[in-house]
Please model this.
Amino acid sequence: MEMASLNSSLLPLLFILLSSFSWLTLAHPHEDFLQCLSFHFQDSTAISKLIYTVRSSSYSSVLQFSVQNHRFNTTSDPKPAVIFTPTNVSHVQAAIYCSRKQNLHIRIRSGGHDYEGLSYVSYSLPFVIVDLINLRKVAVDARHKTAWVQAGASLGELYYRIAEKNRTLAFPAGIWPTIGVGGHISGGGYGMIMRKYGLAADNVIDAQLIDVKGRILDRSSMGEDLFWAIRGGGGNTFGVVVAWKLKLVPVPPTVTVFTVPRTLEQNATKLVHRWQSVASKLHKDLTIALVLRRINSSEEGKTTILAAFTSLFLGGVDRLLPLMQESFPELGLVKEDCIEMSWIESVLYVVGFPSNASSDVLLGRTPLTNRNFKGKSDYVEEPMPETALEGIWERFLEADIDTPQMVWAPYGGKMDEISETSIPFSHRSGNLYKIQHLVFWDEEGNEASNRHISWIRRLYDYLTPYVSKNPRAAYVNYRDLDIGINNIQGNTSYRQASIWGIKYFDNNFDMLVSVKTRVDPTNFFRNEQSIPPLSS
Model:
């Protein structure tokens, strides 16, 4: 699939031509940026349809459409001077050049799911959002089991297009269908078939990246070190990935799903404790994720904890039941709990769409939730004792917190077989499971926000003895600025960035810094947790 439409060899000439026009300099950098783009495309009417400023009637709706965390959708949050929605790769090249020329900070948004809003909020002002929502083509080659997907496509669109061509092919990426492919794969990306096939980034075989010089690079021309870095080293750091070439994976015509809910009154504590020792050792065709949340109790006025054991098995129920009886009989799974379906139907099931929903819902881009939230992450290497679980329940049941939740994703299987240096994502063998900590709330205002964020920080502190250490590992796609932050203005030292960088990437952080220093020495592509170059 041909993703690039501007010959890279013409770009230096464009840069020289643009630089020679002193009349482009106006009073405001963002107006200079608009003039720069207009000159590049020579058709101000066409380009105006892709640009939104605060004077545009649809500015707010375009900005807010992909805001997935309502916490960063307030009047006090910094707003971009310009939102640019390119329709081809040459537009992105021009945006990079014009942003550099006018000294505008740039943020890249594919789906808007950054947990700290870094794809659409910046305190380095003024800034431009390059929103890739129009770069969303998916070209599936079922015969060769590959697909080219542009970075602005959603996971739902990717899954839909794969199933449209072949219902026994899949891709091992995330659950939430509105997540943008660009950012998801840049941080690793995992889902319900991770234990069978690894991460999304483990299954990337080529890419198209626009670097700081505006060149379109593929795997061959960028070199293996940069290709390594973009597959898990975090987005908006090394350039703009505009497309990924993916290796698709086989799935059987029939898979089996189940969700078994258990409350504290139904022995949830002992089942969760047992799950910790079982889930990472199951057959790699079987994933049992665990979702923990607070619900109303059957006793009026009281609340309890619900543990939902949600599973995807790559096979039929008759093969699943003996595996469960052998490995996790305590759960008490019976045939009536199980539903056989196709893999694409299982995508809808795991998200929670109604059983009669059409797969067309995967093509929707509207956010599925519009709440405030704060997220954090952890890795667990030894089972927590039941007393530790009881401490979690106690904190979940605090009355002044709206919606606390944990998602525990089991490791093992393929994740144990891939080297921790294969890509920047280092969390492999030795991890039983990953924790996603979440708290949601609807109440507006700083007091409510501070109360919920303080709660999740206290929970995180409480879990310190029970999770990974030296470093306390974290997952970059669950962005958490609590663990460290770069300078908003000016350079960030290696020492300062390593505070958070080692937690996300462990020993791979040094290699990421080395690559960054080579490909973007002036740190044009940056955010509050982007890899810094070494100072010259």
Remarks:
- The mean pLDDT is 93.
